[in-house]
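Look at a sample.

——
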Amino acid sequence: MRQDKFTYTQFPVYFDISVYDDARKWIINFFSSINDVLAVYEYGTVSSPGLSDLDLIVVLKDNPKPNIYKQLIFDNIPEEKSTLINNNCVKFISKRHFHNIKWLGSSTYKLIYGEKIELNDIPLEYVDLLKIIFVMDFLPERVLTLLKHRDSKIKSILDVIGWLKSYLISAKLTEDIIGKNIKEVNEFERGLKDLRKNWFHKNFSEQKEIFLYLIDKGIYSGLKIIKELSHFLIFSNYYMTIDDADEAIFYFNKENGFLFKNNCNEIYNNINQYYFYDKNKSLFFYVPSIWLNHFYFYGKCDGIISSKIQNNFILKNEIREIGIAPKLLKILSQRITLCNEMAAFLKKYAIPMNKLYRFGHIQHR
């Protein structure tokens, strides 16, 4: 039995699925009174009542009232629904941008209130390429976040379970891309399914044991699939290594970031070397230089999010050439342009950037 001295918070509380229906009714009642709200969509799934909250996208008119955000903030949430409904689980988007949301994610968007909005389909020749970009956007960061939770003395159970699920999505998509099953990912998937299915049938000691095991398993399987994916993408000429990448840093925020390396094989083979804390206790995770290509291109475009990304780089050497296949560059440009436009919309109406559907988590370092 693994011993620890962590403090656990956000304990799951079992809910019958009907409580989720009641929560949706409360959400509908709240937003239906706001004239500038056209629709509310739920994305993701509720597969484990008590372990899942509700993730919402609220679609606004293209030209809402200037002070609209004051009306959009939840208040007086009934206590029994407070773990399912909170302001952190809501993203906002204009109707014009929502038409193209499939460029930003492969989630299922379920209308729970208002106008059914037509979503533009992704051209068939881009579907598999978008899978690569989805993984490039999020895979190492999700491993980094699990690492942060592993080292934290306060374990937020519901928060971590959410990140474990998000990591698994990236890991399974990576397997799909490389056409290969990874033993460590399959072991992680089985463990997570057991945790989500049987959480409320286990005692706390059992819950804690598998919870901590899955954090470790997510990190170690993540290291393996990052290596596998990097080799595949380089071999397939989707991304190229950058000779000037070593020791370049990218910050997601003041506390977390990437440090790029041309060759991570030796680092990932030594579990004591794949991350480090600096003197300010910021956590850095080593990743192959192909991810520098990816985020550096985003930062070279114009807009609010691109500017944040560019400012969050510290480069020891000038990046003379971006090593990304032209067929990927077109899709990357489409995605970051959409995100920059969405951010400009939020800024215009004084809606916080953390309400952005994608890349809202990136903060100035």
